[in-house]
Amino acid sequence: MNPSLKDFSNHLRAARVAKNLSQRDLSKLAGVPQSHISKIESNQVDLRLSSLAALANALDLEVALVPRKAMPAVQSISRQAARATLAPPPAVTEEMRSLQNKLRELQTKLPARPELDAARKAYAALKPLPLDNSALEQIRRINQTLRRNTEQWSAVTEATKQMTMLHNRLVHPTSAHGPLVEAKPAYSLDEDDE
């Protein structure tokens, strides 16, 4: 069979597993025989468009033709949507609550500090992101940084920097092709142009 369809078959299987459906359950929902679903997932048969449409509908997916140049953007949005549906682990929730409480405590002590405003903004940007166990250790380090002597405000500045770095790591993950490269401007103005 076509090796390029192997990834596609793997994605269909992953979507079925994510929905907690067996092949038999999916068969009932999509009207596609279970044996055919098995062959599709193991890349033993070419997938017909009618079967694909039925399976996608049953898995709450959409089939679309996307220009190749737009695929990185579509994949990024898909990853974000998939992560957003997952609830953070309890340990992450507890660390984020601790971080929020510490920022509130500092806010009541000295409300008019620019360092604290920056920290609150960094926390607000981090909070809605899909946080999982990979972020847990960094959130713990941020909390440890804030437990240091906050009267010097260098701890608050350092915690803000750590929150911003975590935010950037989550929003701009490295791709499968390696780390992100520096963004280039869409255009430039040369001195020679008139």
Topology:
Blueprint: H1 4-18, H2 23-30, H3 34-41, H4 49-58, H5 71-84, H6 90-109, H7 114-126, H8 133-147, H9 154-171
Helix pairs in contact: 2-3, 2-4, 6-7, 6-8, 7-9, 8-9
Mean pLDDT: 81
In helices, the fraction of residues equals 55-70%
Count the E strands: 0
Alpha carbon gap, first and last residue? 57 Å
Question: In terms of per-residue confidence, which ranges show pLDDT below 50 for 5 or more consecutive residues?
Answer: 175-181
- Listing every helix as H and every strand as E from the N terminus to the C terminus, the arrangement reads HHHHHHHHH
Taken as a percent bin, the fraction of beta residues is: under 5%
> What sort of overall outline do the alpha carbons produce when their principal axes are compared?
elongated
Description:
There is one protein chain. This protein has 194 residues and is mainly alpha-helical. The protein has two domains: 4-63, 434 Repressor (Amino-terminal Domain) (Orthogonal Bundle); 90-171. It is built from nine helices and no strands. It has helices at 4-18, 23-30, 34-41, 49-58, 71-84, 90-109, 114-126, 133-147, 154-171. Helix 2 (23-30) crosses helix 4, helix 6 (90-109) runs antiparallel to helix 7 and helix 7 runs parallel beside helix 9.
Jot down its keywords:
2 domains, mainly alpha, 434 Repressor (Amino-terminal Domain), elongated, 194 residues, 62% helix
Task: Describe the structure concisely for a colleague.
This protein has 194 residues and is mainly α. The protein is built from nine helices and no strands.
